Amino acid sequence: MDPANSWSEEKQSAWLYRALARAERDPRIAALFGSLADAADEQAATWEKAAADAGQPLPLPFEPTPRARLVAALARRLGPRRVKPALAALKVRGLSAYTAALGGHLLPTDLAQVGLSHRTVGGGNLRAAIFGVNDGLVSNASLILGVVGAQASTGTVLATGIAGLLAGALSMAAGEYVSVRSQRELFEYQIGLEADELRQYPEAEAEELALIYIARGMQPEQARGFAHQLVKDPKQALDVLAREELGLNPDDLGSPLGAAVFSFSAFTVGALVPLVPFFAGSALPQAAWWGTGLAAAGLFVTGAAMSLFSGRNPWLGGLRMLGIGALAGATVFLIGHLIGVDVA
């Protein structure tokens, strides 16, 4: 690691922690940020000595980056809790102090539970699949109804529906790939920095972790015992430090390609529904009626399925989604009808 760069990062961390401590209304978390600022200053002193030994000049006086100043200003204005993603990108530790832990208990009772508060419950892929199918249904059914409203021929409607399916699915896949890839690169960078720091000064990392548990209500001696025992296993320590200090979940490092394929497939399934009558050989206007009916049924099913995550009545959820889809389809049909141009 470059001592001068590491010194700058620790000095910036100390500056940012003190800004967050001033902005935080919860005295426990404010005290945590103050303690983390002191710890960052100690680590900066270590890197200052390493830079001097290596003959590297330091950029004195220290000045925080414009990005750090902007995030600090947002934290003062909105509160640190509301800018957690931006703070995580700046490698701010202690963000797990904002989260409820262990099913309502603030503290772990043994080492096996440390860090479990950030493990996600299964069902994320199912939720993404439902939303992907719903997006395909609404967008392609509305597109088809718009072209039908413009009095296009059966062949034109079918070609438009296929084009809409491919364009939407590819757009969804590309967006998901870029999103997951960017998130993965951010996570890998931050976890890599944490691994370097764990190798350089494990005792300081243990103390930072202990401060987080103290802020969450654990007795200081017990917290330090947990933390120092934890860093004896570097692999487990890195996993927990990523969760507790950075608020990151290493289990979320999914495959960008897998996410893109999954998103493409889910959208395609939904977008195919209103096209089924056309593929079956039906012609306008019957194909449009059947396609609209199938799309309506699909919207009701996806709306009801979303109640699995919202806790709402499935009938109400289905009817709400059906109403939203109907409004979108009717709007695009009306626009197409007003244009009244046969694009065939």
Overview of the structural elements:
This protein has helices spanning about 5-25, 25-55, 65-80, 85-90, 125-150, 155-200, 200-215, 220-230, 235-245, 255-270, 275-280, 285-310, 315-340. The protein has about 350 residues and is an all-alpha fold. It has two domains: about 1-100, no CATH class; about 125-180 and about 255-344, no CATH class. Helix 1 runs antiparallel to helix 2 (about 25-55) and helix 7 (about 200-215) packs across helix 8 (about 220-230). The radius of gyration is 27 Å and the shape is elongated. The termini are far apart. This is Rubrerythrin family protein. It comes from Arenimonas caeni. One of its GO terms (cellular component) is endomembrane system.
In short:
The chain has about 350 residues and is an all-alpha fold. It is about 70% helix and about 0% strand.
Report the biggest beta sheet as strand number plus sense, adding barrel if it closes: none
| Domains (count) | 2
Whole-number radius of gyration?
A: 27 Å
Order of helices and strands: HHHHHHHHHHHHH
Helix segment count? 13
